[in-house]
Amino acid sequence: MSVSSSVWPLIYLTEMPLLPQQVIELVSDPACGGIDVFIGSVREHTQGRRVLRLEFEAYEQMAVKEMQKIADEACSRWPVQQIAIHHRTGTLQVGEIAVIIGVAAAHRAAAFEACRFAIDELKQRVPIWKKEVFEDGEVWVAAHP
Amino acid sequence: MSVSSSVWPLIYLTEMPLLPQQVIELVSDPACGGIDVFIGSVREHTQGRRVLRLEFEAYEQMAVKEMQKIADEACSRWPVQQIAIHHRTGTLQVGEIAVIIGVAAAHRAAAFEACRFAIDELKQRVPIWKKEVFEDGEVWVAAHP
Amino acid sequence: MELNILAFGIAKDIVGARKLRYRVAAHTRVGELLEQLQRQYPALQGLNSLKVAVNSEYVGHDYQLSESDEVVLIPPVSGG
Amino acid sequence: MELNILAFGIAKDIVGARKLRYRVAAHTRVGELLEQLQRQYPALQGLNSLKVAVNSEYVGHDYQLSESDEVVLIPPVSGG
């Protein structure tokens, strides 16, 4: 495990910009043949409207706890060596990275499937909320039917 | 498309070390919400034997052509914004990166599926060969039943 | 009893505060709390979902609240 | 006619050279070339597969070779 020698935790909620290279280094391991990395960033348009910026808020202690649970569940369901989940909070500009998930495994199928699982679960249950700010208003994403 | 402004091509076969950050920057686009990146690297063990190094050789002109075809096929099958496939040749040490595939899409499902497709196809049909060198011998991977 | 309620995202906008001191009957369950809140703040009824966490864990409608619980209103999440 | 054959990976090791000038009958098809090569280099028969590319495209056993083709022996690939 590469955790102990690293500055950054595997599960990380931060206001600072996220760096893919950090996540990749965190999960890299000579025992692993494959790493799958998912990077979610702020799109400039959503349903045809131009996004000025996004604002993320989190119920931090629970968000970190749920992110850790997702990582643990992924490790129990797939033969995975290491998982890192980094999520940003605060104000993000278009193109900035909101989330990075990195999964290292001996074989690529497990890396892909666990990474997909982790981002799907994160979007379902981690208490983080995203507000899209447009020129003419703002909206909490997914709040209303 | 970010190709024209970049130093590195989207489809790239090289003896130089591969850099995930390069691939991520190549495919990043403000229209995209999700990027999936697969990184394949040299494992220290294979079937219980310790790997000293790997040697990759390629039938270069055809390899690049097949990599391009795979990218084109992925783009026609999934709503994908940009794909980059970088593969290394020559001698690689344990832990070094042999291949990076980056796929950017508006929505994550397409990014994951196209990336998985691209690495699966690459391993099936791109004329690149890997020789594992052990302390007591060497073997062309997958050559024999 | 009086509960400490935390509200996030659109739930914070609807109730008008991050933290709320909120009076309910003793032994109130989560389902009853939600009904009471939805009567007082009808806009909560328009949400896709409204979950409750206590002490950083999701709890069901049957969960019986006590005064020491930190109760958190969780409107539809949208991280990632 | 004489063909220019390129061999990669284990096929190169078996035929002993990257490039080979190789004599076959006129109008030889890929399948016939492979049989001829496998007789001359029996180790080729032990491979998981042996494909042929001409001018950087995979071709089937029916493909009829001509002297100007660049014929490439493709043992099982293992990139990635």
Molecular structure report:
The complex is a heterotetramer, with two copies of chain A (145 residues) and two copies of chain C (80 residues). The N and C termini of chain A lie far apart (43 Å). Chain A is an alpha+beta fold. Chain A has a single domain (11-133), classed as Aldehyde Oxidoreductase, domain 3 (Alpha-Beta Complex), CATH 3.90.1170. Chain A has helices at 20-27, 60-77, 108-125; strands spanning 11-14, 34-41, 45-46, 49-58, 80-88, 90-93, 97-105, 128-134, 137-140. In chain A, strands 3, 4, 6, 8 and 9 form a five-stranded antiparallel β-sheet that branches. A four-stranded mixed β-sheet of chain A has the order 1-5-7-2, sandwiched between helices. In chain A, β3 and β4 (49-58) form a beta hairpin. Chain C is α+β, with helices and mostly antiparallel strands. Chain C has one domain (2-74): Beta-grasp domain (Ubiquitin-like (UB roll)), CATH 3.10.20.30. In chain C, 22% of the residues lie in helices and 29% in strands. Chain C has two helices and five strands. Chain C has helices at 9-15, 30-40; strands spanning 2-7, 19-23, 51-54, 57-59, 70-74. Chain C has a five-stranded mixed β-sheet with strand order 2-1-5-3-4. The longest helix of chain C is centred in the middle third of the chain and has 11 residues, at 30-40. Chain C is globular, with a radius of gyration of 12 Å. Chain C starts with a strand and ends in a 6-residue tail after the last strand. Chains in contact: A-B, A-C, B-D. The interface between A and C is medium-sized, with 29 and 20 residues.
